[in-house]
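User: My collaborator sent over this chain with a note saying "see what the structure looks like." That's all I know about it. Can you take a look?
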Amino acid sequence: MNIGFASPVSLQLLRPLVDDGDDLPPGYQFAPTADWVQELMRRGHHVWLYTTAREIDAPKIFRGEGITIRIAPQRARGTGRDLYAVEREHLQRMMMEDRCEVI
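Assistant: Without extra context I'll predict from the sequence alone. Here is the result:
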């Protein structure tokens, strides 16, 4: 099953799972998400992970066996004033391009 997962995540924990993993930004310090993603993969699902990172200025995609990580840029300031409107638009566009059966 293709499962989409949208969440803050410690991307450094997923580096070994994707090509060019050393290029992944650090992401958030929220380890449980990485564990959940790896468990879904262990159970045979392809996981599409959607997250944001302040360290990038354009959307990025990282692929590995059983996982696709799509990262949207996150503004350094002003995100709370509009409830992350720019980031939500990036993430929504990414999700609509993919073929997840559930997000």
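A starting point for your reply to your collaborator: Residues 85-97 form the longest helix (13 residues).
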